[in-house]
Amino acid sequence: MKIKDIDLGKYPVLLAPMEDVTDPAFRLMCKGFGADMVYTEFVSSDALIRSVSKTEQKLNISDEERPVAIQIYGKDTDTMVEAARIVEQARPDILDINFGCPVKRVAGKGAGAGMLQNIPKMLEITRAVADAVKIPVTVKTRLGWDAGNKIIVDLAEQLQDCGIAALTIHGRTRAQMYTGEADWTLIGEVKNNPRMHIPVIGNGDVTTPQRAKECFDRYGVDAIMIGRASFGRPWIFKEVKHYLETGEEMPPLSAEWKLNVLRREVEDSVKLLDERRGILHVRRHLAASPLFKGIPNFRDTRIAMLRAETKEELYRIFKEIEKLI
């Protein structure tokens, strides 16, 4: 599958853009485990053109993580165009526009998935951004605003006509947020529309290697994107890629190996931020990691792990966990 001149191979598996998750350290880790392309956290166009330092830091990418996409969001055309030009100077391989974020502070203000209530403005922004930069522009969005407005089949064609190079579809509406099951039938309908000629990337509930293969085989998508299933499990890319390439599950990774990966996540997070903020940042990965599921009488240890404030304290708990797994 190619996005313009960027060749991502036969069965591309991408790391989804996620706020407070896909920082440089996590992107590099997922890349090392087989992610074919990674995305930054989403970048506010308003904050970027105001030169907000924390936002500008999100543009920091490295050659080691290529191909890499920087994702922006906003609701004003001129602001998005200006932000897109700033992003282009950071030299990402792709500029992605976020029309899918459902959280209130974004969608409630008309940006992200909020644009699903203002399609003319969405198309205006998309066309203007695609015309403003030389790098490929892609879009990530949802099925529609709610169950009564699943407009993605027609919308996909309209976005394609604006000049985008690929489209990612999350198989939920904005109203669903992250609840219920992702509906891939409409993603498949978009992909199988004979008028669509750009790559279609599917996103939502890809949590196992078997499901990843099913999404390629059943819905015909050009690539899949993994998001929340990578929390505390960046090795999912290794498992998925092995299955897609061989048709067989890879030999089980040992619990000790996985725990060492989580230690690396802690180290990387602390190095990127500082000890206190780094440990706070990595807690969502520890909380979500499937490594700890099924350990008997784990509740108190889990609470202690998620309350730890120093590496020393956290690693002491990890040593106790090693005796249990």
TrEMBL record:
Domain DUS-like FMN-binding residues, every copy: 14-302
Reaction equation(s) it catalyzes: a 5,6-dihydrouridine in tRNA + NADP(+) = a uridine in tRNA + NADPH + H(+); a 5,6-dihydrouridine in tRNA + NAD(+) = a uridine in tRNA + NADH + H(+)
Gene Ontology MF term list: flavin adenine dinucleotide binding; tRNA binding; tRNA dihydrouridine synthase activity
UniProt-listed InterPro entries: Aldolase_TIM, DUS-like_FMN-bd, DUS_fam, DusB-like, tRNA-dHydroUridine_Synthase_C, tRNA_hU_synthase_CS
Full protein name: tRNA-dihydrouridine synthase
Residues at the active site: 101
UniProt keywords, alphabetically: Flavoprotein, FMN, NADP, Nucleotide-binding, Oxidoreductase, RNA-binding, tRNA processing, tRNA-binding
Cofactor(s) essential for the protein: FMN
Binding positions for FMN per the UniProt entry: 71, 140, 170, 227-228
Role noted for this protein: Catalyzes the synthesis of 5,6-dihydrouridine (D), a modified base found in the D-loop of most tRNAs, via the reduction of the C5-C6 double bond in target uridines.
Highest taxon of source: Bacteria
Organism name: Bacteroides clarus
Entry-linked CDD domains: DUS_like_FMN
EC number assigned by the record: 1.3.1.-
Top-rank EC class of the record's enzyme: oxidoreductase
PROSITE patterns from the UniProt entry: UPF0034
Family: Belongs to the dus family.
